[in-house]
Amino acid sequence: MKYSKATNYALHTMLFLVSAAPNKPIGVQQLAERQGVSPTYLSKILTKLVKADLIESASGANGGYRLKRKQEEISFLDIIHAIEGTASLFDCTLNHSSMCPIQQEMIEAEQQMERYLQNKKMSELAVKITVD
Amino acid sequence: MKYSKATNYALHTMLFLVSAAPNKPIGVQQLAERQGVSPTYLSKILTKLVKADLIESASGANGGYRLKRKQEEISFLDIIHAIEGTASLFDCTLNHSSMCPIQQEMIEAEQQMERYLQNKKMSELAVKITVD
DNA sequence: GCGTGATTACTCGGATACAAGATGTCCGAGTTTGAGCGG
DNA sequence: CCGCTCAAACTCGGACATCTTGTATCCGAGTAATCACGC
After folding, report:
1. Is residue B132 part of a domain?
2. A122: Cβ–Cβ under 8 A, 6 or more apart, which residues?
3. How far apart are CA B117 and CA B111, in angstroms?
4. Interface residue of B31, B112, B122 to substitute, partner A, most A CBs within 10 Å
5. What is the chain B residue with the closest CA to A89?
6. What distance in Å separates the CA atoms of residue B80 and residue B3, rounded to the nearest whole number?
7. Is residue A41 part of a domain?
8. Residue A41: which CATH number?
9. Whether A24 CB is under 7 Å from strand C
10. How many domains is chain B built from?
11. Residue A132 belongs to a domain
């Protein structure tokens, strides 16, 4: 089990957008070059973020992507869910007579992690990245 | 990101072993049939549990698998780590100048989940499965 | 100047190629139990 | 009754085959800003 690279790209892109000027859209080329990934692939990832209503896109010349919400209203979990989906990490394929106790514990464990990510907002990190 | 089916099989097998007689080894065929999976595949999974020192195997006739530790000393995390490995869920592939702040948060989030799984012992579930 | 059209710089979406890992199967080898058989 | 041998019931491990998913590329289409040109 691993988080996908796409999640990695998404998080870093969001972090960059947060630290950039809020109004000017930033082209996908610039974002891709910064992370060493192809622009076409990154745009595919960003499309998911657009559909999740985290960012918005401006087409045409001088187009690009910019935040749609405030920093304080964007959590790690929002981004991760946009990329990885919201399905549970664990599926009990066995058809028990009753609800699977293992499944219940796994869901609870997962929620522990999600609660933390839900409370982590982009604004907390925006301070740290003045240089890098 | 998903937990693998192997983890599912491993957890259910452990739960069954916990609720069974502690001394008599249980054959892989019986375990496999119960979960609707091929015996050869399940044995491959159980080999990992053996290497993790959670269970032990007895070869030859009347052989099989049995617990190596007490119920109270086997946590969900032990089993999951045995199957999925202990590597971090998130890898920042970008080579920052400094340690990646995103990576740090993700590791912290992951530890939230692992702490919960570490504290969940098999003995807690053994009670629930009298029927199922 | 001022509209109008062409060019340019972008995003968007589908189709497709590629790679890696998860999933599952097959088979030969080693190991223990227990039954059968001969002394 | 004892000991030997042999078959049966197991696990073990490596080598495959297959399938799904993540990763990445290519290309045509649409869209908005900007520039050029003619009036």
Report:
1. no
2. A14, A15, A18, A71, A72, A74, A75, A76
3. 10
4. B112
5. B2
6. 9
7. yes
8. 1.10.10.10
9. no
10. 1
11. no
Contact status, residue A97 vs residue B129, Cβ threshold 8 Å:
no
Residue span of the structural domain in which A40 resides: 5-126
Where residue A128 falls among pLDDT bands split at 50, 70, 90? low
Q: What is the pLDDT of residue B89?
A: 97
Kindly report, residue by residue over A43-95, the tens digit of the pLDDT: 999 999 999 999 999 999 899 999 999 989 999 999 999 999 999 999 998 87
Is the pLDDT at A130 greater than 70, yes or no?
no
Q: Which residue has the tokens 């948060």?
A: B105
Say which of A84, A106, A117 has its CB closest to residue B1: A84
Q: What is the mean pLDDT of chain A?
A: 91
- Mutation test of the interface with chain B: which of A38, A74, A112, A129, choosing the one with the most B Cβ atoms within 10 A? A112
Query: In this predicted model, what pLDDT tens digit does every residue of B65-81 receive, in sequence order?
Result: 999 999 899 999 999 99
CA atoms within 13 A on the CB side of A48: 20
At residue B97, does pLDDT exceed 80? no
A19: chain B residues, CB-CB within 8 Å: none
Residue A20 included in any domain = yes
From residue B16, give the alpha-carbon distance in Å to each of A78, B20, B81, B122: 37, 6, 19, 10
The residue with greater pLDDT, B41 or B128, is: B41
Tokens of B74: 């086997």
* pTM listed for this prediction: 0.89
Question: How distant is C1' of D32 from CA of A27, in Å?
Answer: 14
